[in-house]
Amino acid sequence: MDISLLAFVHILVAAAVCWLNFIAIDLLFRLPASGGVVGATAIGKHIEAKGGALPGGIMMGNIVSSPDASAGTLLASCGVFIAGIPGGLLTALLVFIGNRICNDPGYAGTTGAISATFIVSAFTLIGFSPAEFIAGMVIAILTIQGISHRHSSRLLAYLWRARGG
Amino acid sequence: MNPQDTALAACAVIAVYAAIRVALEPDTLRKLPFLNVLSFAVAGSIALILPHPLSLVAAAAYFVGTTLESNAIASTYAGGLDRRE
């Protein structure tokens, strides 16, 4: 297979893996339940006013307002790309500090960075490059925050109900 | 193209797309998720263009900084904290 086509396929697989990692951890840490700061709730309400679902909108507001598992996954991919597993764990520390700076009491970002460090490192053993996970995470966040807020917030609200609220 | 160049191209295209969406969205609070995508793409590009331990710190600092700005903008638009006694 052509090398750039192979990299393209790898990026799409990496996007799916990153998507599952950050959505699962954010739902586990109850991000759609309530806004961490008033701004997150306000973003949720504005998305709801445009035809979206409130729990999904609040989760999107929380992603905007503080480094969550998606930011942890992106920075851990950067860390593994530059310095291997120690680099990934260093970014977990930086995300932890970032959470405290943003007035966020949760551990979703730190957990996401640690889990992503090991997931990305495992995928490098089967021929993936950590660089593909950086692009994959950018595509994953694009699907949630950057295409249709109405549809992505409804999807997140559906997953939130499936988790049991 | 090697994987690094392909990943950088993907980040660059998404950054431009997100910038256009930010410019076209009229509602300030709904601009912020698009701005979040832009920050992801730029933070990823910093690490991809300059693979050095310090650029890792720079990417993290840039990302946390933009998140804090979005946090402050959103909270200000929402009325901010009520500090009246």
What is the fold's blueprint, element by element?
The complex is a heterodimer of chains A (165) and B (85).
Chain A: H1 3-28, H2 38-49, H3 54-65, H4 69-101, H5 108-124, H6 130-145, H7 149-163
Helix pairs in contact in A: 1-4, 1-5, 1-6, 2-3, 3-7, 4-5, 4-6
Chain B: H1 3-24, H2 28-49, H3 53-77
What would the average pLDDT of chain A be, to the nearest integer? 92
User: Structural class of the helix and strand makeup of chain B?
Assistant: mainly alpha
Major interchain interface with per-chain residue totals = A-B, 56 and 53 residues
Shape of chain A: globular
Please give the count of helices of chain B: 3
Number of domains of chain A: 1
Radius of gyration of chain B: 16 Å
Number of strands of chain A: 0
Distance from N terminus to C terminus of chain A (CA atoms, Å) equals 45 Å
List keywords for this structure.
heterodimer, A: 165 residues, 7 helices, B: 85 residues, mainly alpha, 0% strand, flat
Walk me through the structure.
The complex is a heterodimer of chains A (165) and B (85). By secondary structure, chain A is mostly helical. Chain A contains seven helices and no strands. Chain A has helices at residues 3-28, 38-49, 54-65, 69-101, 108-124, 130-145, 149-163. In chain A, helix 1 (3-28) packs antiparallel against helix 5, helix 1 packs across helix 6 (130-145) and helix 4 (69-101) packs antiparallel against helix 5. Chain B has one domain (3-77). The mean pLDDT of chain B is 90. Chain B has three helices and no strands. Chains A and B meet through helix 1, helix 2, helix 3, helix 4 and helix 6 of A and helix 1, helix 2 and helix 3 of B.
Short précis:
The complex is a heterodimer of chains A (165) and B (85). Chain A has 165 residues and is an all-alpha fold.
